[in-house]
Amino acid sequence: MLRLDHIDAGYGGGRVLQDVSLEVDAGEIVCLLGRNGAGKTTCMQAIMGLLPLMAGRITLAGQEINRLPAHQVPKAGIGYVPQGRRLFAGLSVAQNLEIGLRARGSGRDTLEEVLDLFPRLRDRPDQPAQTLSGGEQQMLATARALCLRPKLLLLDEPTEGLQPSMIEAIRRAIVQMRDAGVAVLLVEQRVDAVLSVADRVAFIENGRNGEVMQAEALRADRSIVERYIGV
Amino acid sequence: MEIGPYILLASLEGAVTAAVLALTAVGLSLVFGVMRVVNIAHGEFFMLGAVLAWWVANTVGGHPAIGFAAALIVAPVLVGVLAALADMTILKRLNYDPERTIVATIGLLYILQQLTLMTYGPDARPVEAPFNQRIALPWIEHTEAGWQMYYPWGLSTTSYKLAVIGAAAAVLAGVWAMMARTRIGLLMRATQADREMALAFGIPVEKVYALVFGIGAGLAALAAVLIVPIQQAHYLMGADPLLLSFIVVIIGGLGSLPGTVVAALLIGLSDGIISVFFSPTLAKILATLLVGLVLVFRPRGLFGTRAP
Q1: TM spans, by residue (chain B) (predicted)?
Q2: What's the pLDDT tens digit per position in A101-151?
Q3: Contact B200/A at CB under 8 A
């Protein structure tokens, strides 16, 4: 579904990512693991077209998306849950979701499906997004991305700072999307959380590709995890 | 005449100033709020509105009301389109960098001003008001025979000035409704909240920016069309509205529309009252002092929220 072909990307001339390649298939959760500053978030921003690509190409279902203007990229079918949630402050829960629905012209039925996943949001459509609790904000950020009916879901540290019941709700939603055939690329710091949902794990180190492994193999032998992200 | 009627008269004059100032400042505030662009050329869009109003009114001819009505539509639309073009050709190329756009809009200021001087010339020219009946205002006074209503000499306003206040209030209500109730207002507010996320959710941010810049300039031009029957059109008339708009926007809180309107009322009314009782210079001194105090003690303005 998603394919990164030898991409270079970075900020203002500096290359954070060098020669990174990655594939995520439909119905698969791939987790990107690496130390802080390894380039995980940069990778997501490059996919979204928020950073210019200096080399390589990115395709989604065969369509080259790295040549599209940034606002056209999500319309190809990518839902983005950024680090720190970044909801539209000042807009209500319903308005945040409406922005998501509008992106690909999703209808009322999509909204209902999304709200079924996060019933807490159904009760408070008019509440300003920034007044929700941390967990509810994360639910809204995830729901907003699902409103695009994405083929590919990008999640950047979706469980950061959340209590266990919230983490479980987010995890359930991610697995449900995977089972529905969505390709999921997940950035996560908590290794145990990753190993419980991921199908494959791709390591990234200093902006370069590390090993790519089946999550199964990592669950059996965690020493390699220590090698990449241990301190 | 006692002090009471004087205060009423001064407040009415101040309310006209406040109405025009509110429109101009809301335009500036909208552009800063959504785009984070400090538009130094805002006063020149105001000036262009007035000059175009004169040109349209003179071209159309006939009854003054016809020319004025045409100017009321044509001038803000033309100025808005011009501003949107300036956004697409200049600001977009600078990637909306906050510092470089300040320099660019300073350049735009001089280009617009000097082009006006070259074509329209250095004269101040009037536009005739569409209607202008003098309205005497009553005052009540306690005499030996009880409360009595009478018309003090000199206490009057014109129907046109009242219409300016009404029109400004209606347009401001319209701007509020656009931001709060419409689809395009929602996209503008989302862009204001987080530009990158707006892109990541498919909002054509560049088109939103061009529209916002056009609307901001159009509001300044509209304010100028309303005031030009009272003030005359001149190629240097943009300086005062620019300064006062910045004062108002800083006091009200950058990017806050309600704050901008409240601050415009505060500055407009106090300007009117202080000018009548003391001097216009003292009014400007106090307004500038207030800005200083706000910047020291409440840098986000009276209604400002934290910048993202």
Answers
A1: 6-30, 37-57, 63-86, 159-179, 208-230, 242-267, 273-297
A2: 999 999 999 999 999 999 999 999 999 999 999 999 999 999 999 999 999
A3: yes
CATH code, A2-229: 3.40.50.300
Q: Select the residue of B193, B194, B203 nearest A71 (Cβ to Cβ).
A: B203
> pTM of the entire structure?
0.92
Measure the CA–CA gap between B218 and B52, rounded to whole angstroms. 12
Q: Hey, which residues 282-301 in chain B have their CB within 8 Å of chain A?
A: none
Q: How many alpha carbons lie under 13 Å from residue A53 in its C-beta half-sphere?
A: 24
At B182, list the tokens: 């419409």
Contact A102, A71 (CB under 8 A): no
Q: Which two tokens mark B258?
A: 């309600």
In chain A, where the domains are located: 2-229
Task: Spell out the domain ranges in chain B.
Answer: 19-236
Please report which residue ranges of chain B form alpha helices under DSSP H: 3-35, 42-60, 64-86, 98-119, 159-181, 183-193, 195-200, 205-231, 239-252, 257-277, 280-297
Instruction: Give me the interface pTM, i.e. the ipTM.
Output: 0.94
B186/A91 touch (CB, cutoff 8 Å), yes or no = yes
The one-letter amino acid code at B30 reads: L
- The distance of B174 to chain A (nearest Cα, Å) reads 19
Q: Which residues contact A140 (CB under 8 A, 6 or more apart)?
A: A85, A87, A93, A96, A97, A118, A121, A129, A132
Q: How far is B190 from chain A (nearest CA, A)?
A: 6
Are B196 and A86 within 8 A, CB to CB?
A: yes
Using one digit for the tens of pLDDT, what is the confidence trace for A75-94?
999 999 999 999 999 999 99
Distances in Å between the Cα of B13 and the Cα atoms of A62, A128, A215, B76 are 66, 40, 75, 24
- Name the residue with tokens 């909208």: B30
- B296: burial class by Cβ within 10 Å (0-12, 13-18, 19+)? exposed
